[in-house]
Amino acid sequence: MDKLDLILRKIEALEEGQKELIPISRAISDRQEETDAKLDGMAMDVHKLQGKVEAQNEKLNAVTDELYTFAGTRKATSAS
Predict the structure, then answer these.
(1) How much is the pLDDT for 72?
(2) Is 64 in contact with 73 (CB distance < 8 Å)?
(3) Angle 42-46-49 (CA atoms, 0-180°, nearest 5)?
(4) Pair 52, 59: CB distance under 8 Å
(5) What proportion of the chain, given as a percentage, has pLDDT over 90?
(6) How far apart are CA 57 and CA 49, in angstroms?
(7) What angle do CA 55, 58, 59 make, to 5 degrees?
(8) For the residues of 20-43, what is the DSSP string, one character each?
(9) How far does the chain reach from its first CA to its final CA, in angstroms?
């Protein structure tokens, strides 16, 4: 009967440990979801900023072309 009691105690200890781990695991999962949502928001912000930078570059190129046209000179082109 001693071995059976020992096994039962070990099972009870494992169950208690599992009860402690479940809320910890849930908390980690919840924090991961929050982090994922923040990263998604940041990714959208970056894409928005990329679009704005591209639009500004296009405007700058158009103004530069107009200045070169106004000045009667040719714009130097890069050989890339």
Answers:
(1) 81
(2) no
(3) 135
(4) no
(5) 80
(6) 12
(7) 90
(8) HHHHHHHHHHHHHHHHHHHHHHHH
(9) 84
Q: Which residue has the tokens 């130097």?
A: 76
Model-wide pTM > 0.70: no
Q: Each residue of 10-45: pLDDT tens digit?
A: 999 999 999 999 999 999 999 999 999 999 999 999
Residue in this structure with the two tokens 């982090």, named with its chain if needed: 35
Q: How far is CA 68 from the centre of its chain?
A: 42
Give how far the C-alpha of residue 61 lies from the chain's centroid of Cα atoms, to the nearest Å: 32
pLDDT at position 80 over 50: no
Residue reference for tokens 């949502």: 37
CA distance 59 to 63: 6
